[in-house]
Amino acid sequence: MKKIVTLILVLIMALSMTVLSGCGDDKSTESKKPAPTVEPSSSATVSATTESATQKPATTTSAETTATTNVPATTAPVMTTATENPSPSATQKPSTPKPTATTVVKTDAELIIGKWETIIDFGLATKKIYESNPQTMAYAEFVDSLMLKNYYEFNPDGSYTDYFEDDYKSKLEVFYANIYKKILVADAEANNISVEQALSLRGYTKMENYIADLLVAADIENNFPKMTQGTYTIANKKLTCSYEFCGEKITETLSYTLTSSKLTVTDIDSDVSDVVDSIIYNKIS
User: Would the pTM count as exceeding 0.70?
Assistant: First the structure.
């Protein structure tokens, strides 16, 4: 984060060339169905004529004799209770509890290992720095939006790499070229001269040559290298990163919150945090 602020300050120095004066349990909702009603069996119905046990002289037709004589006594079936001779399915065996999985809780030192990605609002950071400096405050309105992808890769051995997307340099060049053009036009208007005259006062006849020289002076590739490498420590909710930038050894301490998929960092240095808000990185590998 400090590197971003340093880059903006370095490029503001190049900007000075443009100024005329002088950078829960599941519960089933299914209702229980009533048990089916058992119809009495017709075989359980016994003829009420018990006198059929006493044989009377046959005075009726042979068909009637057949229906009323020698009727065997009908006995209602005996119901067997479930406790008699239980079937194997009726005997329930005690269930064996399933082993529960052991949850492994990773430390922050383990969680941070991997590749993290974010998108930094570089335009907003630049605008805040311009607004904080009386000499560049008027130029803040000329700052356009610029979103840059930034990556961190933390390794188990305590080393890390911080880098930007491949085309970051071309995006920065377009970003600053637009600012330089707007400032030149604004200065020409403020001094009641034409843009051509403003260019001439700076020793130029063409805008593109003027912008090209400003970008050379800004030296984006060296002042803001695509990649930096260093070492880190993580403990007590503090992430400390040490690296070399522009020939200077820098150590910055960030407060953070960390999960398996998200890392949020805030620079403890108020000079940086006032410019760059907390940055949220998402884990991508």
Answer: no
d(CA 140, CA 127): 5
Higher pLDDT, 236 or 59: 236
Q: Which pLDDT score, from 0 to 100, does residue 99 have?
A: 60
Tell me the per-residue pLDDT of 66-80, one tens digit each, with 9 for 90 and over.
334 444 444 444 444
Return the residue matching tokens 């079937």. 87
Those residues whose C-beta lies under 8 Å from the C-beta of residue 237, and which sit 6 or more positions away, are: 108, 255, 256, 257
pLDDT of 109-147, one tens digit each? 999 999 999 999 999 989 998 898 888 888 899 999 999
